[in-house]
Automatic annotation (TrEMBL):
Name of the molecule in the record: Acyltransferase
Phylogenetic lineage: Bacteria, Pseudomonadati, Acidobacteriota, Terriglobia, Terriglobales
Cross-referenced InterPro entries: Acyl_transf_3_dom, Glucan_succinyl_AcylTrfase
Transmembrane segments: 34-57, 69-92, 113-132, 152-174, 195-216, 222-245, 257-277, 297-318, 338-358
Acyltransferase found in the keyword field: yes
Domain Acyltransferase: start-end pairs: 26-381
Domain of life: Bacteria
Keyword annotations: Acyltransferase, Membrane, Transferase, Transmembrane, Transmembrane helix
Length: 394
């Protein structure tokens, strides 16, 4: 389970053709920055005992309390933050396409999404693997050469840019087939869908997730993508597209989302209760469909969208109300978030290896290593975004 990020830049002039453009949506950039930090501590949790896939494992998943707590954090995060990124990516896809046109839009996507993916597959991915394998006593350079010679497709967290590139092309095909002139597209203010539609979509997305995971259990890749999670990713990308067209993010209110937000504690607690009652000895096997169709796996697939809708609505409302401001600190963090995401596997694994000999409890090491890795990612990203050739990509 990995995550990813959309463009972390300050939002461009997506409202250029409107007579009365709405307030600048700085809070969305801030959201993506905070979610990027969550990506890093998410992978750090897997390093120290959570369920999930990652480059380096210092503590194996077990029935220990720390392992179970970290697993709950990972399972909860996985329920919403990947889909959240796709929703935000979908939100800015229509204005970008309409402003640039098909050719320039695809060229920009290839530059900003395709090149980082290629760089990770060729260099950063093998580098991270080689670093992680030194903990097993394997030679660094031999591992690098082995990965290169084997021509392994190591997309790591950059699977998101791969998927987003595919979604972007699919959206272009959709717009071309519907024959809507790009220069005539307009926004309207259709109301945010009622709660009954939220409920119906959660049921459908959960049911489709079950079907996907029967064929592609969690942990099984196809083209480097975990198809088992894609029912929510596809749906939320489409919601993002519709949200821009109908101005839903500005219109979202507490009254419309309150039942989903208020139900979050009750929905969330079902997961630890269910896992405690499940008799499968390994949590990951229980929720991954790796061994047939266990009840826990079906429960997780259906539980995810119900939790996701509440978390996404809560974050949107809170960030819009409290963080929709432009400050030097936010601007500095936002501008470096995409670069931080791309390089975070190398720096997180490096930080974990540096602290490997430290005899501390897994939870303490998770907090310390995660904090160090987050800080390191932004500090290293800072000079990268200043390089003229990289500035346009990052």
């Amino acid at each position: 389970m990995t995550t990813a990020i959309v463009e972390p830049r300050v939002i461009r002039d997506q409202f250029a053709r409107q007579e009365n453009p709405p307030q600048r949506e700085y809070y969305i950039d801030h959201l993506r920055t905070v979610l990027t930090m969550q990506v890093i501590v998410f992978h750090c949790a897997i390093t120290y005992g959570s369920v999930g896939g990652w480059f380096y494992f210092e503590v194996k998943h077990s029935e220990a309390l720390s392992s179970q707590i970290l697993s709950l954090f990972v399972l909860t995060s996985q329920a919403y933050f990947m889909g959240f990124f796709f929703l935000l990516a979908g939100y800015f896809t229509p204005p970008s396409l309409e402003r640039k046109g098909y050719a320039r839009f695809i060229a920009d996507r290839l530059l900003r999404l395709g090149l980082p993916l290629l760089a990770f597959c060729i260099f950063l991915g093998p580098l991270t693997i080689a670093m992680a394998q030194t903990a097993q006593g394997r030679d660094f350079w031999q591992t690098m050469l082995s990965v290169w010679k084997g021509m392994y497709f190591v997309n790591g967290p950059l699977w998101f840019t791969q998927a987003l590139l595919m979604f972007s092309v699919a959206y272009c095909v959709y717009r071309w087939l519907t024959r809507t002139p790009l220069n005539q597209a307009r926004r309207d203010s259709s109301s945010v869908p009622r709660s009954v539609w939220w409920l119906a979509s959660a049921v459908v997305v959960g049911a489709v997730a079950v079907l996907f995971r029967v064929r592609y259990p969690v942990g099984k890749n196809a083209l480097g993508l975990q198809i088992g999670f894609f029912s929510s990713y596809i749906f939320l990308f489409a919601v993002g597209v519709a949200a821009w067209r109908h101005d839903w993010l500005r219109q979202l209110t507490w009254a419309r989302a309150r039942w989903w937000i208020l139900s979050l504690p009750f929905l969330w607690v079902l997961m630890p209760i269910h896992l405690s009652l499940d008799r499968t000895p390994d949590t990951w096997s229980a929720v991954s469909f790796a061994k047939g169709m266990p009840w826990a796996a079906i429960f997780w697939a259906v539980w995810e969208p119900f939790v996701a809708w509440g978390f996404i609505a809560a974050f949107l409302l809170a960030f819009r109300k409290y963080t929709n401001v432009k400050t030097p600190m936010w601007l500095w963090l936002d501008r470096r978030a995409y670069a931080a995401y791309i390089i975070h596997p190398v720096l997180l694994v490096g930080a974990a290896l540096l602290l490997r000999s430290w005899a501390a409890l897994p939870m303490i090491k998770w907090a310390c290593t995660g904090s160090i890795a987050v800080a390191a990612c932004w500090l290293v990203a800072d000079p990268l975004v200043r390089v003229p050739g990289l500035r346009r990509i990052l």
